[in-house]
C-alpha cells in the first residue's frame, strides 16, 4: 500500500483552505531548507529541491514547515488500522506499507473483498494506492503505477509486467543506477535481458539484486510490526517559555504522569518519544531507547 505525498495530504487535512493553491513543505533539519513535499498545484517542484529553486518556479507558493512527528503519527495510525485486517503489516518508509494477504482470502470472502477491506481501513483523504503481487517489489511497482485509488494486480509473469517500467523505481544506490544508464539500460526489461554474471562483474551484489528484482524475484518476507502498548501524556507550557529548567520540569511531570498510569505500574518502558511543538519554529521529536 502506498500513500503518495503523505506530508502534503496531512497538511491539507490540517489546513483545508490551502486546497487548490501551490504550497511547498520545507525541512530545515539539515540547515539548508530543502523541499520535503509539495502540493499538486506546485508543478515541477520535487522533494530534495532547494526552497530557493522551488520559489523561483512558484513565487506565490505558501511555505509550510515540515512537521515530521505529525506525519509519522498519521502513518502509525494507518499501520494500526491495517493490522485490523491482517496480522502481517510492515511499515517501510513513511507512506509505504507491506501487508501479507495469503491465507486471508477465505476469511474475507475472496481477494476483492480483502483488498476492499484494506482500502476502507485507511481514511479516504489519504487516497491509498494498492498493488497486489506475490512479492514485495512487484507489489510496490504496481502501487506506484496505479492511478487514483485503483488497485493494480501483477499477473503471474511479473517480469513481463515490470519490463516497460523505468529503472528509477529500483531501490539501488545512485551510482549503480547511473551505471546502468551509461550501459543503455533504461528499463527493467533491458536489465532483465542481460546475463546476471555481467551485471555482477560490473556492480557486484547490487548488480545481482537489480537483475533479480527486474525478473520479479524478491524473497524479502513481510516483517510484522512488533506489538507495543503506548502511554501518551501531554503538557502545555506558558506562552513564550524559553527557560530550559521549565522545559525539564515539564518533562519530569510527563514522566511522573505516565508511570502513574495503571497500564505502566510495575512495568518497564523500552522507549520514550519526546515531541515538542514550538511557536514560530519547526516541531521536533527525539526517541530515547532504554536497556533491558
Plain-language structure description:
- The protein has 292 residues and is α/β, with parallel strands linked by helices.
- Strand 4 (89-91) and strand 5 (97-99) form a beta hairpin.
- The protein is built from twelve helices and nine strands.
- The chain is globular.
- The strands form four sheets. It has a three-stranded mixed β-sheet with strand order 2-1-3, covered by helices on one side.
- Helices cover 38% and strands 13% of the residues.
- The longest helix has 17 residues, at 244-260.
- It starts with 5 loop residues before the first helix and ends with a strand.
- Among the domains are: 6-65, MutS, DNA mismatch repair protein, domain I, CATH 3.40.1170; 70-155, no CATH class; 159-214, Orthogonal Bundle (DNA polymerase, domain 1), CATH 1.10.150.
- Helix 10 (196-203) runs antiparallel to helix 11.
Alpha-beta classification: alpha/beta
Number of strands: 9
Residue stretches low in confidence (pLDDT < 50, at least 5 long) are none
Question: Quick one: overall form?
Answer: globular
Work out the oligomeric state of the chains in this entry.
Answer: single chain
Largest sheet: 3 strands, mixed
Order of helices and strands: HEEHEHEEHHEHEHHHHHHEE
Query: How many whole angstroms does the radius of gyration measure?
Result: 22 Å
> Major sheet: order of its strands?
2-1-3
- Mean pLDDT across all amino acids: 90
Amino acid at each position: 500500500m502506498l500513500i503518495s505525498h503523505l506530508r502534503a495530504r496531512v497538511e491539507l487535512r490540517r489546513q483545508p483552505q490551502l486546497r487548490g493553491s501551490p504550497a511547498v513543505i520545507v525541512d530545515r533539519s539539515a540547515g539548508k531548507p530543502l523541499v520535503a513535499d509539495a502540493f499538486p498545484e506546485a508543478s515541477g517542484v520535487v522533494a530534495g529541491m532547494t526552497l530557493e529553486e522551488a520559489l523561483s518556479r512558484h513565487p506565490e507558493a505558501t511555505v509550510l514547515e515540515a512537521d515530521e512527528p505529525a506525519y509519522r503519527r498519521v502513518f502509525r495510525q494507518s499501520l494500526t488500522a491495517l493490522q485490523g485486517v491482517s496480522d502481517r503489516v510492515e511499515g517501510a518508509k513513511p507512506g509505504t506499507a507491506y501487508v501479507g494477504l495469503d491465507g486471508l482470502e477465505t476469511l474475507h470472502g475472496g481477494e476483492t473483498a480483502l483488498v476492499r477491506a484494506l482500502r476502507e481501513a485507511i481514511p479516504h483523504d489519504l487516497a491509498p494506492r494498492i498493488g497486489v503481487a506475490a512479492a514485495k517489489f512487484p507489489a510496490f511497482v504496481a502501487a506506484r503505477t496505479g492511478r487514483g485509488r485503483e488497485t493494480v494486480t501483477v499477473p503471474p509473469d511479473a517480469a513481463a509486467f515490470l519490463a516497460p517500467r523505468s529503472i528509477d523505481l529500483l531501490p539501488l544506490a545512485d551510482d549503480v543506477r547511473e551505471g546502468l544508464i551509461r550501459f543503455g539500460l533504461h528499463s527493467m526489461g533491458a536489465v532483465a535481458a542481460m546475463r546476471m554474471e555481467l551485471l555482477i562483474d560490473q556492480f557486484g551484489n547490487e548488480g545481482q539484486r537489480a537483475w533479480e528484482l527486474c525478473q520479479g524475484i524478491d524473497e524479502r518476507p513481510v516483517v510484522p510490526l512488533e506489538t507495543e502498548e503506548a502511554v501518551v501524556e501531554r503538557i502545555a507550557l506558558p506562552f513564550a517559555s524559553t527557560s530550559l529548567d521549565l522545559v525539564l520540569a515539564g518533562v519530569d511531570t510527563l514522566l511522573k504522569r505516565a508511570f502513574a498510569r495503571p497500564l505502566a505500574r510495575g512495568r518497564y518502558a523500552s522507549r520514550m518519544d519526546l515531541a515538542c511543538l514550538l511557536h514560530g519554529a519547526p516541531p521536533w521529536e527525539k526517541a530515547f531507547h532504554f536497556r533491558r
